[in-house]
Amino acid sequence: MTRSDRERDPDRSRAAILDAAEQLFAEHGYALTSLAEVGLRAGVSRGTPGYFFGSKADLYQAVLERSFDEVRTAVRSGRERALTGDHTAEEILAGAVSDYFDFLSARPNFVRLIEREALGGPARLGREDAPPLSAGEEALAAIAAELGLDPAPSGEAAQLLLSIVSLCWFPVVHADTVARAVGVDLSTPEAHAARKQHVVALVTGGLRALSSIRSDHLLQDASA
Hints:
By secondary structure, this protein is an all-alpha fold. It is 77% helix and 0% strand. The chain has helices spanning 3-8, 10-28, 35-42, 48-53, 56-83, 89-106, 108-120, 131-147, 156-173, 178-181, 189-223. α5 packs antiparallel against α6, α8 crosses α9 (156-173) and α9 (156-173) runs antiparallel to α11.
């Protein structure tokens, strides 16, 4: 499709601009990315990104919102699948961890964007209306409801979700740094699958430990 064709199709143009902006923001950061560069990467005229999105800040926010919409869609899809059959809590958790691991691995630009935000401070992601907050709240509600965990702030569900995010996130971010330094090769599909299996085993084992601790507390309370 030529540049003129793209610009005659608003939906295609908008999607191409978002794709290009996501790549450039991930590669170079917010400050070093211009709307003109986004237009060039998207195959549209230099002024088209501004026409569709206004300012660079508005385009950046649209990129973040689209990324976290994908997170929310993945959470909802996993929850719907979990509810379609008679699954144990451990099976539901294993599926959620596996899905999230694959989601991050398939979206390296998303990971780079959030890493840049973390290094640059909470200017955009730390706001109360920021996209990750609503996505996180939805994921937390799903974990708490499906596994029967305490949904309170810093409760069992929140702690478990944070552990899942950390374990799945780290291999994507540090495949070429920390992982390599400790002798873990994550460059092949087989290595990727082995790492995912390890993470799933850690998380599901942690769920069993939580269940055991809760049972012990109940027994202690009953005998008191």
